[in-house]
Specification:
The structure is a single chain. The chain is an alpha+beta fold and about 350 residues long. It folds into 2 domains: about 5-115, Thermophilic metalloprotease (M29) (Thermophilic metalloprotease-like, 3-Layer(aba) Sandwich), CATH 3.40.1830; about 145-185 and about 210-345, no CATH class. The chain is about 25% helix and about 25% strand. The strands form 4 sheets. It has an 8-stranded antiparallel β-sheet. A 5-stranded parallel β-sheet has the order 2-1-3-4-9, with helices on one face. A 5-stranded antiparallel β-sheet has the order 8-10-14-16-17, covered by helices on one side. Strand 18 (about 335) and strand 19 form a beta hairpin. Helix 1 runs parallel beside helix 2 (about 40-45) and helix 3 packs parallel to helix 4 (about 95-105).
C-alpha cells in the first residue's frame, strides 16, 4: 500500500458517508496497522465540517464490564457516525458490540466497516495469494459504482422473491429455500444520511467498503437439502469433506470430524443449528479469479454465494443466539424456478 492508496481509501470512506457540517465521528482503529490511513481520513472529516468526537482502540479480548458499557454508550450517544478500521483480529468485545448494536437499532447513527484483509478466505485447502495481490484487488473494488450495483440488486431481488430459490454445485450441494417477504440488505457502498432513510434492519446502517453483496435471511424453516463443504471454515483445522443436511431449517453434519463441529455448535447454543442467511456477491473486482482463486471480502465478489448458520437478528430473521457460522461457495448455480441467477459461479444478471 502506497500513500496514494491510503489517500484513495480515505476518500472512498468520506464519499460513502457524505458527512455534513457538525456531524460527530467516532473512530475504531488498531494502532498496529493501516495507520497511514488515519491522517488523510481525519483531514477529509474536518474538511467536510464534521469532527472526530472519540476514538476506540482495538483490543484482542472478550473482557468487559458494566462500567465499560456505560462509558461506551455515552460515546455513541455523542456520535452520528462510526468508522470501523482494519484490525489484526476483527471483532468487538462484548460491551462494545452491545453499545454499537443499541446505537444502530435506535435508527439515528450510521457506520462504515473498512475491514480489508480480515475478509479474505482460502478456497478449500489452497493458500491465500500474497497480500499485495489482495490489496490491488480491494483497491479496484472500491471503484465499483454504487449505482450500477444497486440496479443489479433490484433485478435480483425481484427474481429471488418470485419463487423457491435453489442452490446447487457439482460437488453435491442441493438446497432450496424461500425468501418470502423478508427484507433484503443491499450493500452498495452508500453510507449517506439519505440512504439511511430506507434502512429497515440493523445491517442497512452498517455499510461495508468495498460493497457489493446482497443479503437476506430466508424463512428459516423453508431450507431443505444439502450443502457440501470441503472445509468447515469456522473450525478451519478440523472439518473436512462435510455435508450439511437441512430439514426444515435444522442442520445435521456428516463428514470428517463432524463430531467436533457438533460440539462447536452445541457450545454456541441458541440457534446455531438453524439456517441463517443467503448472500450473493456482485462486485466484479472481487470475483474469484482462476489464476489466484480465493474468497475476497466476505464473499462480496460477483457470483460468490454465502450460506450461513446462526443468529440473524441483524437482518430481520427469526434466529436468536448461537453466533454466526459462514460458509462460502464459489462455483454455485442459483435458480428460481427455471430462471438462472448464477451459473457455476458466474452472475447472469448484468
Amino acid at each position: 500500500m502506497t500513500t496514494a492508496d491510503y489517500d484513495k481509501s480515505a476518500r472512498r470512506i468520506a464519499d460513502a458517508l457524505k458527512l455534513a457540517p457538525g456531524e460527530r465521528v467516532l473512530l475504531k482503529l488498531d494502532t498496529r496497522l493501516f495507520t497511514p490511513l488515519v491522517p488523510p481520513l481525519q483531514n477529509l472529516i474536518r474538511a467536510s465540517g464534521a469532527h472526530v468526537s472519540g476514538v476506540i482502540l482495538a483490543e484482542d479480548t472478550q473482557v468487559s464490564s458494566d462500567e465499560e458499557l456505560d462509558s461506551l454508550r455515552r460515546l455513541f450517544a455523542n456520535a452520528d457516525v462510526f468508522i470501523w478500521l482494519p484490525e489484526h483480529h476483527q471483532g468487538n468485545r462484548p460491551a462494545l458490540r452491545r453499545a454499537l448494536n443499541e446505537w444502530l437499532d435506535e435508527g439515528r447513527g450510521r457506520a462504515v466497516h473498512f475491514h480489508w484483509h480480515s475478509g479474505s478466505y482460502p478456497i478449500g485447502l489452497r493458500e491465500l495469494p500474497p497480500r499485495d495481490f489482495i490489496d490491488r484487488i480491494y483497491l479496484a473494488a472500491l471503484d465499483v459504482s454504487p449505482i450500477d450495483i444497486d440496479a443489479q440488486h433490484r433485478r435480483a431481488i425481484a427474481l429471488l422473491r418470485s419463487g423457491p430459490v435453489r442452490v446447487t454445485t457439482p460437488e453435491g450441494t442441493d438446497i432450496s429455500f424461500e425468501v418470502g417477504n423478508r427484507p433484503f440488505c443491499s450493500q452498495i457502498g452508500d453510507a449517506s444520511r439519505a440512504r439511511m432513510e430506507s434502512a429497515r434492519t440493523r445491517i442497512d446502517r452498517d455499510i461495508e467498503l468495498p460493497g457489493g453483496v446482497l443479503r437476506v435471511a430466508p424463512i428459516e424453516t423453508s431450507a431443505n437439502g444439502s450443502v457440501f463443504l470441503q472445509v468447515w471454515r469456522p473450525l478451519i483445522t478440523e472439518g473436512r469433506n462435510l455435508t450439511l443436511y437441512f430439514a426444515n431449517g435444522h442442520v445435521a453434519v456428516q463428514g470428517v470430524n463432524a463430531d467436533k463441529i457438533d460440539q462447536e455448535l452445541t457450545a454456541a447454543g441458541g440457534d446455531a443449528r438453524m439456517f441463517r442467511e443467503f448472500a450473493l456477491g456482485f462486485n466484479p473486482a472481487l470475483q474469484v479469479l482462476p489464476e489466484a482463486p480465493f474468497i475476497a471480502y466476505y464473499g462480496y465478489g460477483a457470483g460468490v454465494v454465502r450460506l450461513s448458520l446462526g443468529d440473524n437478528e441483524e437482518m430481520g430473521g427469526a434466529n436468536r443466539g448461537g453466533g454466526v457460522f459462514w460458509n462460502f461457495i464459489h462455483n454455485a448455480t442459483v435458480t428460481v424456478d427455471d430462471r438462472v441467477l448464477v451459473k457455476e459461479g458466474k452472475l447472469q444478471i448484468v
